[in-house]
Write a structure and sequence with these properties.
The protein has helices at 2-18, 76-85, 98-106, 115-120, 133-155, 179-202, 211-221, and strands at 27-33, 38-41, 57-60, 65-67, 91-95, 127-128, 164-167, 172-176. It is α+β, with helices and mostly antiparallel strands and 230 residues long. The mean pLDDT is 95. It binds zinc ion (ZN). The site of zinc ion has 4 residues, from loops.
Length: 230
Amino acid sequence: MTQELKRQVVEANQALKSSGLVALTWGNVSAIDRDSGLVAIKPSGVPYEELKPSNIVVVNLENDVIEGEFKPSSDTKTHLELYRNFSSIGAVVHTHSPSATAFSQAGKALACLGTTHADHFYGEVPLARALTAAELAQDYEHFTGVSIVECFEALGLDPVEMPAVLLRHHAPFTWGQNTVKAVENSIALEMCAQMALMSYQLNPELKPIPEHILKQHYQRKHGANAYYGQ
Ligand SMILES: [Zn+2]
């Protein structure tokens, strides 16, 4: 099981590079085996082309390294906080993809402006708050996760319907039921952010998509009455 999970994590991390979402090593993917509670994650600072199942790190939900010679990604504690609180998710992706990161840096949530966005994210992709100096001093990556969970609780968001968040001053996180879905959500988020930037340029007064169109498009692809695809 861990072997298969590690293989999926290698492939997903390499997909970040090949999809053009990340430069250098600005991104990481992890996946969890819910039966054992073990998480496979990218080793810190290792180039994507050098990844193989044997250098993927396995940690438990308490952040103890269970397998692997390398240090896990520096963002591991953020991933773990998401797995502990969002019980329905199976994989987590972090990137600094440019257009989504532009919204993070500008301190703006990503409004749903059209059906491309509505197909993947049910409404506005939220912006999690900036961390305090005390949180940074205590445990930066852990509190990054805390700020995401807090944001979802405050807004009453379901992490299945909204598989993405923008971190203020930082960049996005996405997730999904497995690594393929979580990476897909990162690609969709980047494309939607890019389209939003162009749309605001054409019409700075732009308003979000009407509720009934949002609902129709989201439900076409998700939930009990989905009818998109084969
Ligand atoms: Zn980052």
